[in-house]
Amino acid sequence: MKITYYGHSALFVESGETRVIIDPFLSGNPNSGITPEDISVDAVLLTHGHSDHFGDALAIAEQNGCPIYAVFELAEYCRIKGAAVKHMNIGGSHTDGEITVKYTQAFHSSSIQEGDSWIYAGQPAGILLTIGGKTVFHSGDTALFSDLRLIGERNAIDLAALPIGDMLTMGPDDALLAARWLRAEKVIPLHYNTFPAITQDGEDFCDRLRQEGIEGYPLQAGESIEI
User: 102: how many CB neighbours lie within 10 A of its CB?
Assistant: First the structure.
């Protein structure tokens, strides 16, 4: 499995001929280094409805003729906008070909802005994505919460992707504890350095992970690792 980071919280995951993108905030992301038109995938996965995660989901799904996986209310929003969708919810899983997706809790909020109105987009979520026998956990935007330990106990997570930006999500200290609880051997920090309010030192965070026996990868946009 190869995982490529495209800035903020966007991950492109490929295994064999299967390709998936999670939280495709690309065209509005100053750090993505890629356009939605460059993306070829079999599915789009969303953790929640905020614009810095929802991003280019509709455009990517349309150009690839692929479904968007999301919590029910967000999936319905996408369906109304013309996308093919997979209606998911917290605790549920779905397998389609080589892809297995399970939605987990996240402690955050989720909405979509249209003009001066905000549309409720269901519960925020984390995603367990399994392809080819490897599992990636994308926590979405979340605070630290104790059931991350349960997620780690019940799932063999090969790589966890965790926010470290603070202010809007957990910061480095809480993310370090989350990484321990999840029992992942490898961690990619997310959701930092996109805007001044979430400036963090990804190298320092990964150095702290290594002191705990966890491999940390402070990827720049366009960089990849293989597991």
Answer: 21
170 burial level (CB within 10 Å; 0-12, 13-18, 19+): buried
Amino acid present at 170? M
Going across the sheet that includes 159-163, the strands are 93-96, 99-105, 125-131, 134-138, 159-163, 186-190, 215-216
Write the pLDDT tens digit of every residue in 118-137. 999 999 999 999 999 999 99
18/43 Cα distance (integer angstroms): 9
Is residue 130 within 8 A of residue 103, CB to CB? The reply is no
**What predicted TM-score, i.e. pTM, was given to this entire model?**
0.98
Q: Would you state the structure tokens that stand for residue 22, as one six-digit string? A: 């999670």
Backbone angles phi, psi at 66, to 5 degrees: -120, 160
Confidence band for 77, pLDDT divided at 50, 70 and 90: very high
What average pLDDT does the segment 140-156 reach?
98
DSSP state of 220: P
List own/partner pairs for 195-204 with CB under 8 A and 24 or more apart: 197/165, 197/167, 197/168, 198/165, 198/166, 198/167, 198/168, 198/169, 199/165, 200/164, 200/165, 200/166, 200/171, 200/172, 201/172, 202/164, 204/172
